[in-house]
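Researcher: Please predict.
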Amino acid sequence: MAMTANTNKQEIIKMLKRNPLLMLGVGGLLGAILFSFTYGNQSAPPPNQLALPPSSPYSKNVSGIGIVEANSKNISVGTFLQGIVAELFVIEGSVVKKNDPLFQLDARSAKADVDIKQADLLVAKDQHDRASNLTSGTSISFEEKQRRKFAFQRAEAELKAAKITLDKMTVQAPTDGLILKVNTKVGESVGDPNNNNAIILMGNHVPLHLRVQIDENDAWRFKTNTKATAFLKSNKDIHFPLSFVRIEPYASPKQQISGDVQEFVDTRIVNVIYKIDGDTSKIYIGQQLDVFIETDVGG
C-alpha cells in the first residue's frame, strides 16, 4: 500500500515537471485558498462617525430642517428700466454697503437727454428773467410774462425728470450685505418683465438667520422660549446655538427637497426664524442644517 502511494506521488511529480503550466495552475489554486482564509474575511471598516446623523441633545424635542438665509431675507435685486448692462461693479462674494453701485445700464441716451434739458432750462430761465424785469402792460403783456414763467417751471421739472431717469441707470444696493449671485454679464439685456430671474441676489449676512421648517403636526409642541441647536449635515460635531427671532403665522405647503420649486406635498409647515450664534464661517447661505428644538411636551 505504501509502495503504491509513493509510486502515485512520483508519477504526479513527473507529470508536473513535464507540464509547467499545470504546476502554475496548482500553485495559483493553493495561493487563492490561502488568501481566502487569511485576507478574504477581513472585518468591515468602522463607519465614518462624522457622517452619522446627529442626535438630539434634548430629552424632548421638535425637529426640523433649517435653511440658512440672510437676516434681510435673500433680496432679488431688479432694475427700474430695461436696457443693456454697460458695467458691473460687483461679483459673487462682494461685501457692499447700502447705496453702493451694483451695475449700470447703457446711459448714453439718458445723459444726452439731461444735456438737452439743461440747455432748455438755460433758455427758459433767461426769458423768464428778462420778463421779470419788464413792466406788465407796457413792455410785455401779463399773459406773455406768465407764459415765460410757466415755461421756466416746466423746463425745471423736465430736467429733474431726466436726471431721475439717469440715476435709475445705476442700480444701487438696497442694504448692507453680501452678493450671493450675479446672473448677468456686461452686454446682456436686463429688465424684461417676462423674466423673473434675479439680476443680482444679495442679503445682509451679519448675523445669519436660519429658517426652520416645522411640520404642522409638531407645531403645537413648539415653544419660543426654549433652547434650539443646529447641526451640520456633514459633521455632527459642528453645531450652533440658536436664538429665536420670530415665527411666521402662515402655514405654507411643504416643498420637497428635490430641486423642483414647483413640487409640493400635502403636508404644511410653519416657518420659524432663528439667529445663528457663534462662528458661522463654516456655513453658507442656502445650506441645510438639522435642527432640534427643546420642548416639554411629547417626545
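Model: The helical segments are 2-18, 20-38, 108-132, 142-168.
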